[in-house]
Specification:
The chain is α+β, with helices and mostly antiparallel strands and 191 residues long. The chain has two helices and twelve strands, in the order ααββββββββββββ.
Length: 191
């Protein structure tokens, strides 16, 4: 028994066990830190992807046809009439912040909204909502449909290509790229 106590073989095994446990604890703490950093980076990149998809996709779509209106029979289209709704899964659009840009091969102009937006009539160089909105509710959401009349300052003749872009405060711009017909009547279907 005295011979066993005088040797340090048991003591060396205990020290090795303590060092091994210390290495395991340090490795566990290090792996926890690495995994936490990875989860945080993954969450941040996922949020960036969701935000970019929201900003890059348009929530708007045209419901029905786009019409060109000639109110004074001078063979020029003075107003463009169309109905907008939300696309499937689209986020609501606040039309009090919407801007419209009208462009042809020779003209580019920003068309401001009337004040209020659901005014009875728009004049040249303005747009308004003729149906679907109220004084207090300019939010296009759910199954809502807003009928818009946009009146650029310059009238459109026959066979004129134009682009009317609707810019909501969030999401991508929605563009109407159309061409006026070769014969202009009071009400014209624009393709």
């Amino acid at each position: 028994m005295k011979q066993i106590l005088s040797t340090e073989e048991g003591f060396t095994g205990l020290e090795a066990a303590i060092v091994l446990i210390a290495f395991v604890v340090v490795a566990a703490v290090f792996s926890y830190v690495v995994l936490s950093a990875g989860f945080f980076a993954t969450q941040e990149s996922q949020e960036a992807v969701y935000t970019s998809v929201k900003m890059a996709s348009s929530s708007l779509e045209v419901i029905g046809d786009v019409y060109g209106l000639d109110s004074d029979d001078d063979n020029d289209i003075e107003a463009i009439r169309f109905t907008l709704g939300l696309s499937a899964g689209g986020t609501p659009v606040d039309f009090s912040t919407v801007q419209m840009v009208f462009a042809t091969s020779s003209v580019i102009e920003i068309i401001p909204g009337t004040d209020p937006l659901n005014a009875a009539a728009a004049s040249a160089g303005e747009w308004n909502i003729t149906d679907g909105a109220s004084d207090t509710d300019l939010l296009l959401e759910g199954e809502d449909k807003f009928t818009i009349i946009a009146m650029p300052t310059t009238a459109l003749g026959t066979n004129v290509q134009f682009n009317l872009e609707i810019h909501p405060s969030t999401g991508a711009a929605f563009g109407l790229k159309k061409t006026t017909p070769s014969k202009i009547d009071r009400v014209n279907l624009i393709y």
